[in-house]
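Exercise: predict the fold of this chain.
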Amino acid sequence: MSVMKRVSMIFRAKANKALDRMEDPRETLDYSYQRQLEMLTKVRRGVADVATSRKRVELQMNQLQQEQGRRQEQAMKALGQGREDLAREALQRKAAVQTQLNELQGQYASLQAEEEKLTVASQRLQAKVDAFRTRKETIKATYTAAEAQTRINEAFSGISEEMGDVGMAIQRAEDKTAQMQARAGAIDELLASGALEDQVGGRTDDIQAELDRIGAGSDVELELAKMKGELAAGAPRQIEGSANGDANGAAGADRAGAAPAGGSQAQTQAQGPATTPAEPPRAGEDA
């Protein structure tokens, strides 16, 4: 096989495949039905034309028959008047009319037979077209139902072109979402480990961050220990102040018996503020 034949065969095969993919059986059936209707119309028009020709021949035959009758009357009148020559002429013309009439009768019979044949063909073609129309509508309905069922099954199975596009879009969206989630998690881990620079506070050192956290905890502990120490130191001072007050009161009472009242009162007033500085002076002592 030559190269050109192979190329021609390939092109024809591809063209046939493309046409088969583009062809819709319903459109093809409608086109065939339209062509049959056109053919039926042409046959009917042919029947009408033949019938018209037959009618014209029939009219001509009627005219020739009338002409024959008129020539017959002329021949009779000529013989009645003794004009045999005129009668002979009239009969000769009558014979010529008869010849034409015979020819028209043959044409009439032929046209009548053709008309009958075309009428039968038209009736048969009409029946064929009607049967084809019924078959066409049945095939179209069956094809439409099968096409709808196929699309429904493809939609359920997810193998149709539209559903495939939708599935691919969903898959791409899920892949992008997973990728973004993984990226966000990785960035969080890198920021926590200090591998990335914090855009707000500058570069973060993990050791310094840990030291700052420990230092903050130590400061809290130191402040808490200081507060505990202050509370513990405050309680003994109050107890010591109370004990010193009691001792000074007893000594003052002893000295009151040996010393004058004025001197004891003055000594008590002098020692009172030193032992209990936090307590306010009593009304009796002021007096």
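Check your answer against the key: Residues 84-157 form the longest helix (74 residues).
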